[in-house]
């Protein structure tokens, strides 16, 4: 089982380092044909308009769509979430191309501008039940998007409660109401739809590798489901493997 990391722009090195801490080798993907060499893919955070322009320039969109369509596991973080969404609002003038496949609408900069970036502990029951560890996960939200609505096949994995009077955008599911000013709105920040996983925050910038481990297990389960003859092997770096003791991080990360 080999993991590709789209390496056009953004935090692809940090994802590769997080995978390495789990003993998994991440392969940088810059060309369409390289997608044929990996069985799962991570689309990192960064700046989605720039990333889309680069993907367009390198004619990557058809191959990325094909990868998603064939049911291979893909995880989009932040800008990667925007890439995977079927619908996006708050885009720059002229819009931007999306890979799509994930039946949801995202708001590109839901939480505001770069200076409104923040960190918060979010409750992710599925992560705790599958990976153990603390009840909450430290989410790093950098000019983060959010999911405004989801289709029937999309599972919501995490919400971030925002005081309703701070919600900058309203839609059918995310609404601001004067009388609700002191109430909280549960904004969707992590979702899963069959082979697709998406988070509005940046797990690759924390020391906690549970999201990467969760994605690896999801990929492994899907691969085993797809081919009962082979369970797939993780390309290991050093002697560690998924779920074993973590090696010392080799890049600066938020603790
Ligand atoms: N940290 C991120 O990936 C930010 C994404 C950003 N909101 C965008 O439009 O691309």
From TrEMBL:
Q: Which family does it belong to?
A: Belongs to the glutaminase PdxT/SNO family.
Question: What is the name attached to this protein's record?
Answer: glutaminase
Native source organism of the sequence: Brassica oleracea var. oleracea
Q: What is its EC number?
A: 3.5.1.2
**What is one Gene Ontology biological process annotated in the Swiss-Prot or TrEMBL record?**
pyridoxal phosphate biosynthetic process
Lineage of origin: Eukaryota, Viridiplantae, Streptophyta, Embryophyta, Tracheophyta
A GO cellular component annotation here is:
cytosol
Q: Which InterPro entries does its entry note?
A: Class_I_gatase-like, PdxT/SNO, PdxT/SNO_CS
Catalytic residues as annotated in Swiss-Prot or TrEMBL: 78, 202, 204
Superkingdom of the source species: Eukaryota
């Amino acid at each position: 089982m080999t993991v590709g990391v789209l390496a056009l722009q953004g935090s692809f090195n940090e994802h590769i380092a997080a995978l390495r801490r789990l003993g998994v080798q991440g392969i940088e993907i810059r060309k369409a044909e390289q997608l044929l060499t990996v069985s799962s893919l991570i689309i990192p955070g960064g700046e989605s308009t720039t990333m889309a322009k680069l993907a367009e320039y390198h004619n990557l969109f058809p191959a990325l769509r094909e990868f998603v369509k064939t049911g291979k596991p893909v995880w989009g973080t932040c800008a990667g979430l925007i890439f995977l969404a079927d619908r996006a609002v708050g885009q720059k003038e002229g819009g931007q191309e999306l890979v799509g496949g994930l039946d949801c609408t995202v708001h590109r900069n839901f939480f505001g501008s770069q200076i409104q970036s923040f960190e918060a502990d979010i409750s992710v029951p599925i992560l705790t039940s599958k990976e153990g560890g603390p009840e909450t996960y430290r989410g790093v939200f950098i000019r983060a998007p959010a999911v405004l609505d989801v289709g029937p096949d999309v599972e919501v994995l995490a919400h971030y409660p925002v005081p309703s009077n701070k919600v900058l955008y309203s839609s059918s599911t995310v609404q601001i109401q004067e009388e609700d000013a002191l109430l909280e709105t549960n904004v969707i920040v992590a979702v899963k739809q069959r082979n697709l996983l998406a988070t509005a925050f940046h797990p690759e910038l924390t020391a906690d590798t549970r999201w990467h481990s969760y994605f690896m297990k999801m990929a492994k389960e899907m691969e085993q489901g797809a081919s009962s003859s082979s369970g797939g092997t993780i390309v290991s770096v050093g002697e560690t493997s998924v779920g074993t003791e973590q090696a010392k991080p080799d890049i600066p990360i938020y603790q």
